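hi! just following up on the protien thing from before. the input was this:
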Amino acid sequence: MFIEAVTNLVKAIIVLFIIVDPFGNVPIFMSLTEKMTEDQKRKVFNTATLVGIILLLVFAFTGQEIFLIFGISIYSFEVAGGVLLLIIAIRILISGSMHENGESPESIGAVPIAMPLLVGPGAITTTILNLQAYGTFVTILSVLIVLFITWIILRHLSAVYNFLGKTGAVVIARVMALLIAAMAIQYILGGISAYLANLP
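and the predicted 3d structure came back as:
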């Protein structure tokens, strides 16, 4: 029984970690926080981790009911996330940064880092499926472990900044904006395609 529980936990962690993909999003996180101080970055990543945990657990236990109440589908959620990311990409390309003077680090941590970059449609769906397959304890523990690992990765972004230097970080930010735009289009197309495929 214990071995089975551990095996299920490892499976849940691996699948969720792959979907959340903190390593793959590192350049994007860099572009979003490139003009922030160390203290602001710390606030951003702390907020992103906490909000990510809360969102995943809330959607895991009530996601299907929330979608049902508001009459929306996971496909609509995916399209909305794509539109949001596309707006963010355009802002970075135009102004060079997502961060504005009047915008708090906490707001950046919540949107777009926590959602939809970390907690997107894929992560939400995966968590719901983990809950159905492995139960409450394994699902909650897997979310906590994956987001804790993500937090550690985020906290060490400064080493990457120092390696690249200011000019390198600016270049990376602009290039990554194009990647964010491509991800946004993929979200939108994926949501539309899935919706059309499931039409009666």
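The chain has a mean pLDDT of 81.
The chain has one domain: 45-197.
cheers
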